[in-house]
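Summary for the steering committee. One of the milestones for this cycle was to obtain a three-dimensional model of the protein with 2-phosphoglycolic acid bound, which we needed before selecting residues for the alanine scan. The sequence and ligand used are listed below.
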Amino acid sequence: MSQARTIIAGNWKMNTDLESAAALAGAVAAGLEAGFGADVLLFPPAVFLAQVVDAVAGSGHPVGVGCQNLYFETSGAFTGETSAGMVLSTGASWALVGHSERRHVLGEDDALINRKVHAALARGLDVILCIGETIEQREAGETEATNARQLTAGIQGVAPADLGRLTIAYEPVWAIGTGLTASPAQAGAVHAYVRGVFAGLTTDADAERIRILYGGSVKPDNVRELMAVDDIDGALVGGASLGLETFLPIVDFGN
Ligand code: PGA
């Protein structure tokens, strides 16, 4: 188990509009109490980053804001892309990289994801690197190999000094948006394995420090048992982060 604070992160994916994004962020911020134990992060669509940063400013409980994706170049002729510097200029300070929808729907590979990790860290963003196996890989006995490969390739070349700004999210693809959640035992086994792989790539001390989040159909009624598992240091929440009535109880799972 990592010694660091739990993270509960909401990944809004391609949902909300300008008005509803600002309203949801403001309502989350207003609903958080100063005593909440978890670090709370919101990942709205990139076009609403600035408004979401504004909406959570001054919250009694700090709320981090980040992008769901970015491009590794700093500027130039890359139509439609968003750089780390642009994200930072909105006041956001986090980046999700390598989400399974980026990998499997948008076709991103490990090499591209690694370049994005480097670009985000170099510009000063904190990074959540997402990894996870498909159902085919799990059924073929390739769960560990898949997660080891995605983690190893994803952080290749990252300087030891930057590891403190890295978080990992284990999200089994078969559990994302499907209502199927990995059991605490299934998730815990992969988290422990991933922490071991990370220790091999870095140091035992780094592996103890790094936070490994679980993602995949996290809901108010399963968050507590998942968070009770050693090696699960938080949650990356998709669908349930879009409603106050489901997100706040997840944030408040410890109470
Ligand atoms: P879900 O999504 O909670 O809707 O399964 C999680 C994610 O994709 O980050």
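Key point for the committee: The first strand starts at residue 7 and ends at 11.
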